[in-house]
Design brief:
5-stranded antiparallel beta sheet; 2 domains; 198 residues; Alpha-Beta Plaits; elongated; 4-stranded antiparallel beta sheet; alpha+beta; Ribosomal Protein S5, domain 2
Length: 198
């Protein structure tokens, strides 16, 4: 039996001002640490002049993979309060990023901790939380002319396509519920227009 957990349905964003410092928060559903890097890159592109882009994430049904980052704020005043809100909401496979624009008034350690906590709490409350299941990863390949056929088949299997690249062939990175994975791979191997990549 695959264990269920709570995660975000889709990205969310909120913002608020605390003593002239602006805090802009982003919540992302993620499956891997590569997706964390992609999301952080997008936030940095959106806010190239921000001095502080702090974050915390948690991954896995067991909730045992996580990271916090204070991004130049005093140690323990940004990443940890963000992570504590993730724990409080009991969500995983999620990333919360808080961008801070300094408003000229120092908040102090207690003020920063309270502001980052509030920023994380607001964006987690704004995100739609859903139940999900543990997934396994595989790579598939198909021809251009059978690409839509494969996509339609994957929909019937509740498989999530995380990434696609279009070269000589179409390569897909796919996530499938762990309890269905073995039978999914058996069925995929029967399809004449699909090959499984290592």
């Amino acid at each position: 039996m695959t264990s269920q957990f709570l995660t975000f349905q889709s990205p969310a964003t909120t913002e608020f001002v605390e003593r002239r410092s602006k805090f802009i928060s982003f919540a992302y559903p993620i499956i891997s640490e590569d997706e964390v890097k992609d999301a952080l890159k997008k936030v940095k592109e959106l806010h190239p002049k921000a001095r502080h882009i702090c974050y915390a994430y948690r991954l896995g049904a067991a909730k045992d993979i996580y990271k916090i980052n204070d991004a130049g704020e005093p140690s323990g005043t940004a990443g940890l309060p963000i992570f504590n809100q993730i724990r409080s909401a009991d969500v995983t496979n999620i990333l919360v990023v808080v961008v801070r624009y300094f408003g000229g008034i120092k908040l102090g350690a207690a003020g920063l901790t309270a502001a980052y906590k509030e920023a994380a709490q607001q964006v987690i409350s704004a995100a739609e939380i859903i139940a999900d299941v543990e997934k396994e990863f595989c790579r598939l390949q198909t021809k251009y002319e059978t690409h839509n056929l494969l996509l339609n088949y994957l929909k019937t299997q509740d498989a999530t396509v995380a990434n696609q690249t279009f070269d000589e062939m179409v390569n897909l990175e796919v996530w499938v519920a762990k309890d269905k994975f073995e039978s999914f791979i058996k069925e995929i191997r029967k399809l004449p227009y699909v090959s499984q990549l290592p």
